[in-house]
Amino acid sequence: MAKEHFKRDKDHVNIGTIGHVDHGKTTLTAAITMVLAKKGLSEIKSFDAIDNAPEEKERGITINTSHVEYQTEKRHYAHVDCPGHADYVKNMVTGAAQMDGAILVCAATDGPMPQTREHILLARQVNVPRIVVFMNKVDMVDDEELLDLVEMELRDLLSFYQFDGDNSPVIRGSALGAMNGEAQWEDKIMELMNAVDTWIPLPPRDIDKPFLMPVEDVFSITGRGTVATGRIETGLVHTGDELEIIGLGAEGRKTVCTGVEMFRKILDDGQAGDNVGLLLRGVDKKEIKRGQILAKPKSITPHTRFKAEIYVLKKEEGGRHTPFHNKYRPQFYLRTLDVTGEIHLPEGREMVMPGDNVSIEVELIYPVAINIGLRFAIREGGRTVGAGQVTEIVE
Questions:
Q1: Angle formed at CA 322 by CA 316 and CA 324, multiple of 5 degrees
Q2: Which spans in 290-367 are helix H?
Q3: Residue tagged active-site, from 17, 20, 23, 25
Q4: N or C, which terminus of the chain has less Cβ within 10 Å?
């Protein structure tokens, strides 16, 4: 059977379920697929199918994640669910599964718990724009006032971590009830999806952002000039566009793209996701190298200091066997470049153990093109010891 072509007639959004262990994240994920399947918008995924999440390798880190896809009347969703708390931390910190928004699941029987808090904090750190709350297991609570109390606590928690606690939708339901086909709880799942459709914003598409391509390789074609190859990260490039070479001392060096080559054909333009070769006017092969980036002039600047949220690999994951301390100097692998940087830990933090996640400030030994949300690996002697993403530019 031929593979079905991915239809692009609906806006695509990436979301995920977050929240404390055993509050019903996976049950809710299964319930969403079940209720939407009755409307012909999804395939049913059982609890077990989602719970037995396959292992994935992302930048040398093993993460268990389940990917489920479904549609509403308005949108197409890719939904991630993780079995374990550690998987959530790794997933969110390394950006392995991009989240344009999240569904926070909280059991009304328990109210907010430590991981409820931690997941909201992580969502804030890695710039998840908005959260919809699903208060689960409300069929097990008789007291309406208790439900109001839990909702108030959840809204306060969202506000505390700078989400819109006053206006974020809070849906009260029962994921298990919906799984069992009880109409009142199925309606609550539809109410939840309606809230997700309206409250979670559409992400800016990569193609609409300014042009940026990390340089992977450089070669010269006799009589034609220098070609830089790489995968276009964001934006579009057209023949005749002025581009800037950034990083590794080439600050502000401008050139013009005189041709875009893909699959050995010359094209007029290239776009985000394409692997291309760009023919550059007047640039000598020695003037451009792997690790630099080509970008729309003035769209991105090189920096040496940034803040980041990182996850440090455990020994069993191939990471360090010992903790590291303040002023630790590993290599940061940013796009196609390895550069040494010094890590500054938060005040009062003596050391970081393998398996921890932590907010750090990094000072690189020379300026590199960096933007918020950029993911990177931390390496030591050629092996990955951590991963993370940029949360703030300092200078």
A1: 120
A2: none
A3: 25
A4: N
Which of these, 205, 207, 143, lies nearest to 172 by C-alpha position?
A: 143
344: β partners:
361
Q: What element of type H or E holds 31?
A: helix 25-37
Grade residue 249 by pLDDT with cuts at 50, 70 and 90: confident
At the topology level of CATH, where does 219-295 sit? Elongation Factor Tu (Ef-tu); domain 3 (2.40.30)
Active-site residue flag, 304: no
Length of the chain, in residues:
395
Q: Is 25 a catalytic residue?
A: yes
In tens, the pLDDT along 120-176 reads: 988 988 889 999 999 999 999 999 999 999 999 999 999 999 999 999 999 999 999
**List 85, 209, 307, 314, catalytic entry:** 85
As its CATH architecture, domain 302-393 has: Beta Barrel (2.40)
**Is 119 among the catalytic positions?**
no
Structural contact between residues 31 and 189, judged by C-beta atoms closer than 8 angstroms: yes
**Which two tokens mark 305?**
């200091």
Percent of the chain clearing pLDDT 70 (strictly above): 97
Q: What pTM did the predictor assign?
A: 0.81
Regarding beta strands 75-81 and 11-19, do their DSSP bridges make them parallel or antiparallel, or are they unpaired? parallel
